[in-house]
Amino acid sequence: MSPQVSLIGLGGMGIALASAFLNEGYKTTVWNRSLAKAEPLTKKGAHLASTPTECIQASQLVIVCLLDSKAVNDILPKDSSVFLDRTIVNLTNGTPEEARSTFEIVTALGAKYVHGGIMAVPAIIGQPVAIILYSGSKDGFQLAEKHLAVLGTSKFLGVEPGSASLFDLALLGGMYGLFSGAMHSVALARSGTGDTTKTSATEFITELFIPFISGIVAYLGHVAKQIDERDYATEGSNLAMQLIAIENIVKTSEVQGVSTEMIKPIQDLLQQRVADGAGGDDISSIIELMTARKG
Ligand code: FVH
Fold first, then answer.
1. Is there a contact between 33 and 59 (Cβ–Cβ < 8 Å)?
2. Closest residue to atom 10 of ligand 1, CA basis
């Protein structure tokens, strides 16, 4: 008998998730608020449920992937008989508090609840490079594990239901830092006069930004060790020196009419650290301003 799965939510990500299961021969039942989005999947053999309740009843493993937690709370049935023997895996982006709240609600209704965070775009779902974080019911995760492997590489972070959301948001925060840095970098590079004005964003990013940043990414392992050991001794790039470079970036951005919104926050952090007497430290020492340390 073919394995079965139900999917609630057929946005860009839900369609990719459902397609991955269909491609692996799963009997796949889907539900979406707007019916039209189900059409490409029903053509590939998916069964269309007419309500979320019908979709949950169709399979023991139910995957939810909606826009936000409010949408999840809106569509989840409140009748516990629907949830008998069900494992609900919610891959909707949300806060750790929202994950914990949905865990309480769904567990009280009698189902096993696992919350997830997808660290991938729809195009790579189904490949090992698609990392998906999970936390919550260990039994639920173990029951679902071999099916979740269809979607990518699973990483179970423990029984605290909010852990996957916390790591999801932490990683996305890093990604947005990179994007905002890249946008500022391109804007500044294109603000010049002379030959550089002819440089396209594509040329600048591929020939200069990516090779430069790749070297910096490799250095992050060392930065992480400094943070863990709380030893910020620099191997040559101290904060006082880096602050001057950042001040030059801010000054030049202002002269060139480029927004300083992305660069000013890091200037503020370095200024504070240098004022605190940490001018001889490495960049890792700004972590001291970002977190209330436990233990
Ligand atoms: N797409 C991506 O790159 C990222 C990758 C990482 C994970 N995220 C998260 O995945 C969740 C879904 O994202 P999505 O890309 O599928 O989002 P949309 O294409 O905008 O589809 C949204 C679906 O949610 C349904 N929906 C919205 N509000 C309601 C509601 N009140 N009641 C019922 N359903 C609702 C919407 O239905 P419809 O508009 O088609 O009727 C779509 O199915 C998300 O948490 C990302 O952060 C994706």
1. no
2. 92
